[in-house]
Write a structure and sequence with these properties.
- The chain has a single domain, classed as Trna Endonuclease, Chain: A, domain 1 (3-Layer(aba) Sandwich).
- It has 153 residues and is α+β, with helices and mostly antiparallel strands.
- A hairpin with a 2-residue loop joins strand 7 and strand 8.
- Strands 1-2-3-5-6 form a 5-stranded mixed sheet.
Length: 153
Amino acid sequence: MAAPDTRDYFAELYVAGLFGDAGWSVYFPKRDVGFDFIVSKAVKGEVLIRPIQVKGLYPTAVKVDKASYGYRGNLSAVHQQMALVLPFFSANERGAAPEQIAYMPISEFKKPSRGGYRCVPARFEKGHAIPRKEFVHYFGNKGLASIESLEWG
């Protein structure tokens, strides 16, 4: 049996591990009918609950540079408190961990007239995702920590 072209399950588990490392409790659904997992954490006396969808981005070696890069497509479930987590992998290193991870609130999704959703917090240059200036605060540890905001979403 051939290996899959993408590593979606790896991306989901990698991101879930990062949430766990940051003190969140991680809950996986019995059936995946929208969210990849749910996280919860007590913050300032409140229990925060965030549905999480992970969409790994796996560029090929022939992908051209783009001024905006991220997820374009359908989301099977949407919630006001959700996070769309975008692990950006390198076009050059198959098997490596994501180079960048963006933790995006619903307020940063766009719904184009032709359907689906658009969330493009990076640009693509020479095989790598680079955070766009206006979205840099959603990347890495700072982005993960921002999910703890009571105003998230």
